[in-house]
Amino acid sequence: MAEPQVLNDPLVIGGADGLRCVLSWLDDYGTNGPVARTWGDLQLWVRDTLIWGNPAGNGGRPQGIRWSWIDLLEYLAIAWPYLEEEETHPIDFATLFEAPKHLGELRGRARLRWRSLPEEQVEEEEEQLDDFLLAHDLGQALKGAYPPSLLLLRHGHQMRAATREKEWALRYADSMSTLEALSERIAYRLSDLDDTRSKLALERWQARDQLQTLSRLEAATGLDQETLEQVWPGAITDANVPYRLKAAARMAGPYLTEDALRALLAELAQVPAGAARGLSHPRRLAAEVMATHEADEPYVQGYRLAGYLREKLNLGDDRADPEGLLGSWQVTVKDIHLPTEALDAIAVLSQEHQPMVFINTRGLRSRFPTGRRVSLAHELCHLLIDTQGALPAVEVLGGRVPQDVEKRANAFAAELLLPRSRAREITRKQLESADTEETRQAAIEAALDDLAQRFEVSHETAAWQIRNSTVLPEAQADSLQPYLKSLWQPS
C-alpha cells in the first residue's frame, strides 16, 4: 500500500444516545476498484461504548476498524428486511431460568440447552440460529475480518443492541436511520464505478425493500407460509398486514392451534379506529415514574409504578378494581372464547385504535375471578408504559413477549392488587404468637387465606407478595414453595 496514509475528515452518523458511526475514508489502498473506493476507518459506537475499534488507538484518540466497507453495504442489503420485520430469535427456551438474560447471551444459552437435547433437534436449532445471526449480527458482515459481535433485534419501537456482555434498548427508527445513512455514504462511493461487484451491490441495496409480502410476513411472525394462508383474516396483501396483526401472530402463533390463532386474529382485525384519550393523564403520570426509575430492574419499576398509582388513586388499604379502572379510562374490556388455555388476555395498545383488553374466558388463569383480575392488572401496566417501547400495537398474555417487559407487568399487577406492605403487616400479625414450627406454618397459611380473601387474589399471588415483602427469614420463606406453582412471578 502507498504511504503516507491519507485520512479524510470523519463523517459522524447517528447521535450520542444511540447507534453512532464515525467513518473516515482512506486514499492509500493503491487501486481504484470497489475495495479501494470504500476503504476506510470505521468506529461503531452504542452510546458511550466503542464496539468496533480501539478507544486509544491513535495518539490516545479512538480508532476504528480499517476495512473495505462495500462488505457492510452488501450485508445490509440482504439483512435489511429481516432487521425491519423479525422481532424474536428462533430458540424457544423452555423456562425463564434457561433463557438468556439478554440477547448477547443467546448463543451461549443455546449451547447449554443443546446438551440435553437429541442430536437431530440440536442440528435443526443450530441451523436456525446460524440463519438468524447471519441477518442480525453485524459482526458477520465483513468477509475475512472478525469484528466483535453486535446483535440487533427489533422490539416494537425499540432496537435491542447487544454484545456478549451487555444489552441496550435504543430507538428503532433512529438505529435504522443511522444504518441507512451509513449505507448511502458507502453506496455513493461506488456510484461512478462500472465493475460487476459495485453494480450488483448498488442494485441489491436499492432493492432492499422489495421482499414479497408473504415472505415479509413469514419473517415477522416466524410462521410458515402455509399456516399464514390458513389463519390470516383476508387476503395477504400489503394493505392487509397491519402491524398489530403481525405482532399478535408473532407472540401467539407458536403456542396456538390454527383454529385458535385464526379466531384471535379475526377478533383483532375488527378493532375499530379510535384514540386513547382517557389514558393521556395516567400515561403522563406513569412516564414520570419511569423516568425516575429508568435505571432500576424491571420488577422494581413495576412495583414503584403500582405504588404510585395506588397513592394517586387514594386506594389506601382498599381492594383495587382493575376492570373499573380500565373502564374509567375509556378502555373497553371484552370477553372472548378462544379454543385454547394457552392465552389469558390480549391488549390492543395501538395509538390508532380504540384501546381494548380481550379476556379469554378459557384461559388457564383468566377463567377464574382472581386470574381475570391479575390479567387485567397486567394489561393495564402495558397500556400505561409500553406503547412507546417494545409493545406499540398489542400484547398477548401467555405469548412470546420480551422478558423484562413481562417481569415489570407481573410485578405491577401483584403490587396493584396486593401491596407488599399489607402482605408484610398481615403476615407479621399472624406470626406474633407463633413460637413453634407447626404454629408458624399455620400462621403463614392463615395469612395467605386472609390476604387472598381480603384482596381477591390467588394464593399464589399472595405467596409471592409475602415472599417479596421480606417479612419471613429465608428458612421460613421456603414454606411458601408449595403455593408457587408456576413460572408466573412478580420478580
From TrEMBL:
This is IrrE N-terminal-like domain-containing protein. PANTHER family: ANTITOXIN HIGA1 (PTHR43236), BLL7220 PROTEIN (PTHR43236:SF1). Pfam families: Peptidase_M78. Residues 353-463 form the IrrE N-terminal-like domain. InterPro entries: IrrE_HExxH, Rad_response_metalloprotease. Signal peptide: none annotated.
